[in-house]
Design brief:
This protein has 477 residues and is an alpha/beta fold. It is 38% helix and 16% strand. It is globular, with a radius of gyration of 23 Å. The protein starts with 6 loop residues before the first helix and ends with a helix.
Length: 477
């Protein structure tokens, strides 16, 4: 269970269907625990020192008005707290669940820095928004007036949906195109249900659809519809595809059966959560049940994989990371959670090769940290003669994601990209070098956080509105 004290009382993690905890989001749950949960929220919120320099706010990518909605929560004004939270964040209940608060708001809390333990900002944010949904305070999307201009958004992840929300509230006609059969992107298929309950994502998507946003699902741009066709149908296009190309493992035996991509593994698990038929789960290909699992990587995706494997009933789960604990990119809170659940971390360890086909073991090379590289991080170095074989029946590669070749896939050579393959776009506005085409989220930043995608989506939607209004003014003159 997570270390955040609020999480123990406000929600119950939802596991895989066969292991799912009883649904305590029922009336009985609220009758028993609502008063206590409300007291805990007020208790945590009242700990905010209301400091003159709100580092929690400045370190939040959305610059949420955290001290103000904590003050409102402490005084019992939950509806006002929700409205203030919603004013700067399209999906506060999602950020409250999955943001790495230990690296952002909570990690920079003045009380935390003084050694007294942080205010549990994420848990309070989640609580007040869940309460808003329960009490009917979440208002439907209802534009004051309709406008004829339309915007096409490619990608139904957090960046695309955040942009859709802003544009639709302004009265524009919005169509979102996505390759998957459900909206939400990685929020739906890449983040496990025990961290982010899927009904929390789906209700936001339903809110958008009920507000007039059209979702075209199972729609692969470049195959089912061309980028040119989308551009021709709309006054503006926002590219919000995210990055889905997995980084590959190197070394002898890297192509053996039983070595799988993290995105495939997590997607299969999420589909099973929805009750979908998943042949790869049934066959064991993407199922950790009864297996010795080794996950390679040290980011949040790796943490999602190890914790999912535990829930699927793996006999053992180990995580290999080539640097030490202090230098891993993932959330330390997630590492703590994984350790509490039985995951073993092999620090300063890297795969050198793979034995068997199907996989039977990973050849592990022990590492040490040497001189800093160009980024200032200490470079991992091999320790000569320090190798061993780690038994494994399933290896999950969670080495991060890279952008797909969108100019090639979409036959748009004029779509400018950086040397990393991400789309070249203006900071804050998302404008690309193609007229009327914008880009947001990971396809611009590289693999990053949901909260940054939301920020990009909101900022770019504002730029789209400004550009459309400017064009309309020029046409009228």
């Amino acid at each position: 269970m997570a270390n955040d004290p609020m999480l123990k009382f406000v929600t119950v993690p939802r596991d895989m269907p066969e292991k799912r905890a009883p649904d305590l989001r029922s009336q009985d749950f609220h009758e028993i625990y609502a008063e206590y949960a409300d007291a805990k929220a007020k208790e945590q919120a009242s700990r905010c020192s209301q400091c003159g320099v709100p580092y929690c706010q400045t370190h939040c990518p959305l610059h949420n008005n955290i001290p103000d909605w904590l003050r409102l929560t402490a005084s019992g004004r939950l509806q006002e707290a929700y409205e203030l939270s919603q004013a700067t964040n399209t999906f506060p209940e999602i950020c409250g669940r999955i943001c790495p608060q230990d690296r952002l708001c909570e990690g920079n809390c003045v009380i935390e820095q003084s050694g007294h333990g942080t205010v549990t900002i994420g848990a309070v944010e989640k609580y007040i928004t869940d309460t808003a949904w329960d009490q009917g305070w979440v208002q439907p999307i209802a534009p004051i007036s309709e406008r004829p201009e339309s915007v096409g958004i490619i990608g139904a992840g957090p960046g695309g949906l955040a942009a859709a929300d802003v544009l639709r509230r302004a009265g524009l006609q919005v169509t979102v195109y996505d390759r998957y059969d459900r909206g939400g992107g990685l929020m739906t298929y890449g983040i496990p249900g025990f961290k982010l309950e899927k009904d929390v994502v789906i209700r936001r998507i339903e809110q958008l659809e009920q507000g007039g946003v059209e979702l075209k699902l199972n729609c692969e741009v470049g195959t089912d519809i061309s980028f040119g066709a989308i551009r021709g149908k709309h006054d503006a296009v926002i590219i919000a595809t995210g990055v889905y190309k997995s980084r590959e493992l190197q070394g002898p035996g890297a192509g053996a059966a039983g070595i799988v991509r993290a995105i495939d593994y997590l997607t299969a698990s999420s589909k099973q959560w929805f009750g979908d038929a998943v042949p790869e789960i049934d066959s064991g290909e993407l199922n950790a049940s009864g297996k010795r699992v080794v996950v390679i990587g040290g980011g949040d995706t790796a943490m999602d994989c190890v914790r999912t494997a535990i829930r699927q009933g793996a006999t053992s789960v180990k995580c290999l990371y080539r640097r030490d604990r202090a230098n891993m990119p993932g959330s330390q809170r997630e590492v703590n959670n994984a350790e509490e659940e039985g995951v073993i971390f092999e620090w300063l360890s890297a795969p050198k090769g793979f034995l068997g086909d199907p996989i039977t073991a990973v050849k592990v090379q022990k590492m040490r940290l040497g001189a800093p590289d160009a980024t200032g991080r200490q470079r991992p170095e091999e320790i000569e003669g320090a190798e061993y074989d780690e038994p494994a029946d399933l290896v999950i590669k969670a080495l991060g994601f890279e952008p797909e070749d969108l100019p090639g896939l979409w036959e748009q050579p004029e779509l400018a990209v950086t040397r990393w393959g991400t789309i070249k776009a203006e900071f804050t506005s998302g404008r690309t070098e193609m007229d009327g085409v914008y880009a947001v989220g990971d396809i611009v930043r590289g693999a990053s956080l949901v909260v940054w995608a939301i920020r990009d989506g909101r900022d770019t939607a504002a730029a789209v509105l400004a550009d459309i209004d400017a064009a309309a003014t020029m046409a009228a003159e």
